[in-house]
Amino acid sequence: MIRSLEWSPHSLQKRIRLPYCHLAGKATCLLRAADTMSTQPPMRLHGSGPTVLLGPHQALALRGTFSLQQNPGSPSQGKKQSKESTITINCVTFPHPDTMPEQQLLKPTEWSYCDYFWADKKDPQGNGTVAGFEILLQKQLKGKQMQKEMSEFIRERIKIEEEYAKNLAKLSQNSLAAQEEGSLGEAWAQVKKSLADEAEVHLKFSSKLHSEVEKPLMNFRENFKKDMKKCDHHIADLRKQLASRYASVEKARKALTERQKDLEMKTQQLEIKLSNKTEEDIKKARRKSTQAGDDLMRCVDLYNQAQSKWFEEMVTTTLELERLEVERVEMIRQHLCQYTQLRHETDMFNQSTVEPVDQLLRKVDPAKDRELWVKEHKTGDIRPVDMEI
Predict the structure, then answer these.
(1) Closest to 106 in 3D by CA, of 322, 382, 332, 283
(2) 3-state secondary structure the chain
(3) How much is the pTM?
(4) Rounded distance, CA 273 to CA 263, Å?
(5) β-bridge partners, 49
(6) pLDDT above 90 coverage of the chain, percent
(7) Looking at residue 25, what is its pLDDT?
(8) How far apart are CA 298 and CA 318, in angstroms?
(9) pLDDT exceeds 90 at position 241
(10) Is the C-alpha dihedral spanning 56, 61, 62, 63 positive or negative?
C-alpha cells in the first residue's frame, strides 16, 4: 500500500500561521518612532503618496480562515477539528471571535486613531461598507470644510464692521443740532466727533480681523485636499494589493484541495487494484499535490507580506492624521482667541472715544451757559417802571 502523504494540511497550517506577534512588534516600533517625530513630521509618501483604505471588495466578502481543513475521506476525518483561530473579512485577517486572545491597545487610554479603525463599517448610504481609514479621511476633509466655513463667517463679520464704520462716519457729518450753544453745544459736538473716532476703530478692527483671523483660516493647508487624495490612493493601492493576494490564496487553496482529492482517489484505486497504472499515477499526483501545497504556502506568505505592509502604513498614517487633527483644532483655537482679543481691544478703544464726551457732559453748566448767552444777546438791563401822571 502506498504510504500516506509526506505532508499534511496540519503541518501546512503551522507553517502559514499569521504573524500577529510580528505585527505587534512592528506597531511598537512605529509608535516609538511617532513619539519622537518633530512638530511638523512629513507625510509618508511611498510612490504616489501617503495612505487610505479602499472600500471593501464585495466579490471577496466574508471568507473562511487560513487554517486548512482536512478533506472528507482523509485519515483524520473522524478526529474533532480544532477551532479556527482567524477569520478573514473583506480580505483582512482578524483573530476569530471565539478564540481571540486579548489584544493590548497600541496607545491605551488615548482613544487613538491607530487603535479603532481596522475593520470596515456598513455604509449608511447603501448596501456596501466603508473602510475604517475612509472614515478617518472623511473626518479630515470635513474638518477642512469647517475651517473654510469659519473663515467665511469671519468674512461676513468683517463686512458688518465695515458697513457699520461707514454709517458711523456718515452720521458724524450730520448737521442736526449743530446750532446748540454753550457747554452743552460743546458736549454735543464731541458726541458727533466720537462717532467718527468710533468709525475709525471699527475700520481698524475689520482690517485686523482680515489679516489676523480670516486670512490664516482660509489659507491654512491650501493643498490639504490634494495631499489627502494622494493619501487615499496610496492606502487604496495597498488594500487592492491585499485583495489580489487573498484571491491568489483562495485559488491556491482550491487547487490544493483538488490535488488532494485526486491523490486520495488514486490511492483508493490502487488498494482495490482497479488499474495497473495507478502506482505511477499516484507518484505524479503526489508531486502535483506537494507542488500545490508549496504554491499555497508561497501565496499565503505573499499575502502576509502585503497585510504587514498595509498594517505598517495604517499605523503610521492614522497617527499622522491624528497629529494633523490636533494641529488643526489648535490652530483654529488660537485664531479664535485672537478674535476675542481684538474684540476686547475694540471695546477699549470705543470706550476711549466716549471718555471726552463724558468729561464735557460733567462740565455742562446751565447757569454758565445762560450767562454767556445773555452777555452775547442781551438787549438792555434797565427795567420798565410805572408811568407818572
Answers:
(1) 322
(2) CCCCCCCCHHHHHHHCCCCHHHHHHHHHHHHHHHHCCCCCCCCCCECCECCCCCCCCHHHCCECCCCCCCCCCCCCCCCCCCCCCEEEECCEEEECCCCCCCCCCCCCCCCCHHHHCCCCEECCCCCCEECHHHHHHHHHHHHHHHHHHHHHHHHHHHHHHHHHHHHHHHHHCCCCCCCCCHHHHHHHHHHHHHHHHHHHHHHHHHHHHHHHHHHHHHHCCCCHHHHHHHHHHHHHHHHHHHHHHHHHHHHHHHHHHHHHHHHHHHHHHHHCCCCCCHHHHHHHHHHHHHHHHHHHHHHHHHHHHHHHHHHHHHHHHHHHHHHHHHHHHHHHHHHHHHHHHHHHHHHHHHHHHHHHHHHHHHHCCHHHHHHHHHHHHCCCCCCCCCCCC
(3) 0.72
(4) 15
(5) 46
(6) 63
(7) 60
(8) 30
(9) yes
(10) negative
What are 92's strand-pairing partners?
Answer: 89
- Residue 62 is which amino acid? L
Report angle CA 221, 225, 230 to the nearest 5 degrees: 115
- CB half-sphere exposure, 377, CA atoms < 13 A: 8
pLDDT, position 63: 32
Contact between 194 and 354 (Cβ < 8 Å): yes
C-alpha span between 216 and 340 (Å, rounded): 16
Cα separation, 272 vs 340, in Å, equals 94
pLDDT reported for residue 138? 94
Identity of the residue numbered 312: E
The answer to whether 284 touches 307, Cβ cutoff 8 Å, is no
The pLDDT value recorded for residue 271 is 74
Distance (Å, whole) CA 289 – CA 243? 25
Residue at 165: amino acid letter: A
Q: What are phi and psi of 265, to 5 degrees?
A: -65, -45
The pLDDT tens digits for 110-168 are 999 999 999 999 888 877 899 999 999 999 999 999 999 999 999 999 999 999 999 99
Rounded to whole angstroms, the maximal C-alpha distance in the chain is 176
High-pLDDT (> 70) share of the chain, %: 77
Digit-coded pLDDT (tens) for 335-381: 999 999 999 999 999 999 999 999 999 999 999 999 999 999 999 99
Q: Is the pLDDT of residue 303 over 60?
A: yes
CA–chain centroid gap for 298, Å, is 37
